[in-house]
Amino acid sequence: MTKMSHTLIIEPGRSEKNYWKDLWRYRELFYILSWRDLKVRYKQTVIGAAWSIIRPVLTTIIFTIVFNRVANLKSPNPGVAYALMVFVGMLPWQFFANALNEASTSLIGNTNLITKVYFPRMIIPASSVITSLADLGISLVLLIIMFFIYHFVPGWSILFLPFFILIAFVTAFGTGLYITALNVKYRDFRYIIPFIVQFGLYITPVGFSSSVVPDKWRILYSLNPMVGVVDGFRWCILGEPLNLASFSLSIGISIFFLWLGIWYFRKTEKSFADNI
Amino acid sequence: MSPIIKVENIYKRFSIDHLEQERYTALRDVVSRKVKKIFTFSSAKSTKTTSSKEEFWALSDVDFEVEAGDRIGIVGRNGAGKSTLLKILSRITEPTKGRISLHGRVASLLEVGTGFHPELTGRENIFLNGAILGMSRVEIRKKFDEIVDFAEIEKFLDTPVKRYSSGMYVRLAFAVAAHLEPEILIVDEVLAVGDSEFQKKCMGKMDEVSKEGGRTVLFVSHNMGAVAQLCNKGILLHKGAIRTKGKINEVLESYTLLEQNLVEVYENGNPGDFQISGVKVLNKDGDPLFSHSEKVPVEVKINAPHKLSGLRLGVALNDKWKRKVFTTQYIVQETDFSAGGVVKKVLLIPCNLLLSGSYSIDVASFIPNSMTYTYLRDICPFKMQDFESDLSIYEGADVGVLNIDCEWVS
Fold this sequence. Notes:
The complex is a heterodimer. In chain A, 72% of the residues lie in helices and 1% in strands. Chain A is mainly alpha-helical. In chain A, helix 4 (46-70) packs across helix 5. In chain A, 41% of the residues are buried. By secondary structure, chain B is of the alpha/beta class. Chain B folds into two domains: 59-259, Rossmann fold (3-Layer(aba) Sandwich), CATH 3.40.50; 266-394, Coagulation Factor XIII, Chain A, domain 1 (Distorted Sandwich), CATH 2.70.50. Chain B has eight helices and 18 strands. In chain B, strand 10 (266-267) and strand 11 form a beta hairpin. The longest helix of chain B has 16 residues, at 196-211. The radius of gyration of chain B is 28 Å and the shape is globular.
């Protein structure tokens, strides 16, 4: 940064105008905060790291038992083990659920920063979503292990995985921002979040394939943006057929949520320091 | 040279919501209120309480300029608006009205150790804290050794700061902050912590930064000694407005007056018989500020439901050290008693008498050796400004309080 030539004007509504410029200027802080969140997460407890392995594995086992053995659901692709299908659905879902949890408490947890230093507030929930992304990375390593266990070789479509991770990120970040802002505004909102996450798990095709949903309900079902994300993951990793209409709808909803999240966050952001 | 900070007519409004006792809104309240509204639709007007918001101006019409290299001390009582001003300057909140231009990088130090994470090591926290305060990684790396050296924590660099003693913690935090290189440094109450040895070191560093580095410092503290030592100019905030600005000595002097809780305009809404119901010492504009060549009017009102012979009114003048300069009294005349039950007299302190400085008065209503109805001590502070007398050229030196026209003979 150049010295002396640096002029700053403070006026009502001013930071609104320079928002994206500021966000870029504070990228270094974003790196550092993400780095801090990661470091703290994996340092605080060995369990912290282990937890990100134990949780998806246990859930996968239980879901496989409940949906495959008890409810007798089948994987649409006979070459793919049910557990593998569940696990692939679990990847984006765990990421989404973690991101939502982490983001929603991130601002409250960083109160001292918010009331003491200026920076675009969006950095904080964003860096907490990054932490969840690291958990997703760990789960991807688990996925490779499962490939070996089930003797599964993914097709060329796995090259699209980064794209679907991006979509998962957009969905989690958008929803996360919205909920974060709500959480600052209404302090009791945090009691609702676990419910949303739990409820979401059952309306998202994690324990089952979305092909079990009757076709006439498919479009309505895809209003849940995570349906598209999970379907996308299954398509690119396992080669399950992708219903393009419903997939595009989910993506559309994701993007809408991103817009809504950013819009609402920015609307309430100015008063964070006064409200928190 | 154009000012490095220009603050123009800044206002900041907070609204106090009477409905909520808590600082935050709870969703359940909002929902229950909305639901209630639906069911009481016909009598919707009864829910007036919802909008009982009170506005509170934390800052009003704050206007000042700072030249590069100035060290400004901002003083005032709790709630005077100091923190709000600093928060606006460091962009944590936006002003409601007004405009500020800052020419140079700003770093604010609103509390030591902002953003320190207890789980991270000293080394990691230096980088984290530096970034939060606005340093780039390159800058931090360049200054790293200096910071560690200043904080005296070499041995504990790789220990999580949660194991640090509070002294080490503060030292590290201040060290990072002190090695910032912004053109404008905003500091709030950092020196309240640490042992006196380290405080001295901090003061030295701040001094060095501002005097040699030519950096501009805005400093808020309750420690008058620190402010006096570090700053060359000052701003006194009172109830959100600037009361005094200028040389640090003047500002601190008027702050001391304010701190003593002096009643500016004395009013007693429910006075007993022959008690004083009001006293004020104000100029034409309603300010307690007079020039040397101006008479100072001391207006006193007594509640007098009937006539009383022998009633006296006494006024004494105190200087800033609370020494009595003189006392004067008045015997209330029969003609002074008005039909309205109020005796109002104005004492005019002669012009060309008082030199620059702060004064306050004592006022009493009494009958000598028999009855004292009211005795008010140390109220109605006012300031004299002297640009006219022969002694005005010694501004700042202690030349006493009175300008007496003495004779010199040979």
